[in-house]
Design a protein that fits this description.
alpha+beta, six-stranded antiparallel β-sheet, three-stranded antiparallel β-sheet, 20 helices, 44% helix, 16% strand, flat
Length: 620
């Protein structure tokens, strides 16, 4: 059985390691959305401003910059295709490309990647969840979804953005008691209230007084029953926290190897004896008499992934081998920025370094408005008289002159109007606010050309496009990180297809194209499908991402560039311009253009035809 104290010790260490990021990421989300008018202010500052009657203004300069970066990603969306590494895998690579396009029907996959990219821009981390669930025809269906950054905890010892090198990964969610019991009926059969998960089902271990070990030095010594109770459940909403812990361990296994080709068997064996038995079984096959193959046994240390699910004092799923053949964690990360400090790592998004300019702008505008609101409007009071606070406010705010009825005094007995010299601070505050706008542009890289604003009234369109492309160089690292996330996701999806798809399902995906071919060709297609499903270990391919050249935005940009060449005299490029422009009547335009071109060619040929020689063809 799983060691409950070990599970909580590991999970608490992961919480401690990720706490700073989680706090910063949540704050970044509030800075992006505005938090209904208060998300960019500290609670203490808001209380102080409201007590003084000052306005806590928010002038969100972060939201348009985040939307700009995410819009650039959407403009440059990539398409997918598989490229064979070996010549004999060409047909299988074409099949993989068709399956990937099916997986992205209605651009659902594109939308997932865009949402994950947006999470990374705001918080620094985005996650793709890939799983296999029952489909419409009671077969397997691959689901690729976005997982919230708030639900995933990184390995405390991670030093690389490649999660295939991590030792562990955790996912956690608060679920209703009814939903949790539906997922784990045996382990939660006696749970009626959220508090029930604090006690073990078999009664041998509880969270009360649990002693944690010393696997991690950063385990909080105060981490005990009360802190776990606050985190493991929400008794008010009747929800319990489910923790899914993925771990990677290295184990020694024995594999069959062909010394001539250097290829290893797809599956390993726990003992050398079982590996030798497998060799003897292979050698007894009839085909070995015709073409014998030499096989040897070698040992390798290989990574194995396991998953354990628990909630409070209940182990909902004992430590189980990864059900997926790819042997990877089913959560794929996207990091906007991943920096290694040697003893720890830091991940952050675009918003993190824009918080101070945003605070500066909000506070300066609030200060300026407060000074203007409080400046006198020409009022005052007569000296020698006692006035109430309400009278003082009317004198300073409404410009009234306050005096006591019946008072008789000299003209010198009233004081001059309220001083308004402090209003000279407003231009200074405005200059600081403008500086914060400039700082935000410099920090984010979202310059005026990238925002669609011309830097000069005489600047040409070509110059603007050049500036935009130069400005986009600041996002090259982030776009490459997103491409890595996409490739890892698609390669994992292909592996799941080979593990869970059937020949019939792939035929349904191919659909009408498969039904149109001749029976002989259908048999060939079935052979390709069978090879794809059965021989993954001997088939090599790369998932290739184009550079967004087929997106509507990029096609429009290329059409504009080709149009400039056509206007400069390169008329032969007109058909390419029409094709890139995606005109509704493009076929008719190209047909008319071809007819005129042929007529022009015939006319030129007739003009170049030599005149008749020696009276030939002339009446005498």
């Amino acid at each position: 059985m799983s060691d409950l104290s070990y599970l909580h010790e590991v999970f608490q260490a992961m919480q401690s390691s990720n706490r700073t990021f989680m706090q910063s990421a949540r704050e970044s989300m509030y800075f992006y959305t505005g938090g209904y008018g208060t998300g960019q202010w500290d609670n203490a500052d808001i209380s102080k401003l409201r007590a003084e009657g000052r306005p806590p203004l928010q002038l969100n300069i972060i939201l348009p910059k985040v939307n700009l970066v995410t819009g650039i990603e959407r403009q440059g969306r990539t398409s997918y295709r598989a490229r064979p590494v070996e010549m004999n895998d060409d047909n299988e690579a074409k099949l993989i490309t068709s399956l990937l396009y099916h997986l992205d029907k209605s651009q659902s996959l594109h939308n997932v990647f865009s949402r994950v990219f947006k999470d990374g821009v705001i918080t620094g981390r985005g996650w793709v969840d890939i799983s296999v669930e029952p489909g419409e025809y009671f077969d397997s269906k691959i689901h690729i979804r976005r997982e919230s950054w708030a639900n995933v905890l990184m390995d405390p010892e991670a030093t690389t953005p490649d999660c295939s090198q991590w030792g562990r990964l955790a996912r956690t969610k608060l679920l209703s008691i009814s939903k949790a019991k539906d997922m784990f009926p045996d382990a939660l059969r006696d749970v009626k209230n959220a508090e029930d998960i604090q006690e073990s089902l078999i009664g041998k271990e509880s969270l009360t007084g649990m002693q944690l070990g010393d696997k991690y030095k950063n385990v909080d010594p105060n981490y005990g029953f009360k802190s776990m109770e606050a985190y493991n459940m929400d008794s008010h909403r009747k929800k319990i926290r489910i923790i899914e812990l993925w771990e990677r361990e290295y184990e020694k296994e024995f594999y069959l190897v062909n010394p001539q080709t250097g290829r290893f068997s797809q599956e390993g064996f726990k003992t050398k004896r079982k590996a030798n038995e497998a060799i003897r079984s292979i050698m007894e096959r009839p085909e070995m008499e015709v073409a014998p193959v030499e096989l040897n046994v070698v040992s390798k240390s290989v990574p194995k992934t396991y998953v354990t699910v628990f909630a409070g004092a209940r182990v909902l799923q004992e430590k189980t081998p990864n059900p997926y053949r790819h042997n990877q964690f089913p959560l794929i990360p996207f990091f906007y920025t991943f920096e290694d400090y040697g003893d720890n790592v830091e991940t952050f998004g675009l918003v993190e370094n824009l918080k101070d300019p945003q605070r500066e702008k909000n506070k300066r505008r609030s200060q300026a408005l407060d000074i203007i609101n409080r400046s006198p409007k020409g009022g005052g009071i007569f000296t020698g008289n006692k006035v109430t606070a309400d009278q003082m406010n009317r004198a300073s705010a409404n410009g009234e002159w306050i005096g006591i009825p019946g008072y008789k005094g000299r003209i010198s007995d009233f004081m001059s109007q309220w001083s308004n010299q402090h209003t000279a601070l407003v231009p200074t505050i405005a200059s600081f606010e403008q500086r914060s706008d400039f700082d935000a542009k410099e920090i984010s890289g979202a310059t005026d050309p990238m925002m669609g604003r011309a830097t000069s009234s005489t600047e040409s369109g070509l110059a603007v496009q050049t500036r935009i492309r130069q400005g986009m160089n600041t996002l090259m690292e982030q776009m490459e990180n997103l491409d890595t996330c996409k490739k890892n996701t698609l390669e994992m999806a292909v592996s799941n297809m080979q593990q869970y798809y059937s020949v019939d399902k792939i035929q349904r995906i191919i659909g009408a194209e498969f039904d149109k071919v001749e029976p002989e060709e259908q048999a060939e297609v079935n052979q390709i499908i069978s090879k794809f499903l059965d021989n993954f270990s001997t088939m090599e391919f790369d998932v290739v991402l184009d550079q967004g050249q087929n997106t509507p935005t990029m096609r429009a940009l290329m059409a504009n560039q080709v149009g400039e060449l056509v206007r400069n005299g390169y008329a032969s490029l007109f058909p390419l311009f029409v094709e890139l422009s995606d005109m509704e009547a493009s076929d008719e335009i190209l047909e008319k253009f071809e007819q005129e071109r042929q007529a022009q060619v015939q006319s030129q040929q007739q003009q170049q035809k030599p005149p008749p020689q020696g009276g030939e063809g002339v009446m005498q």
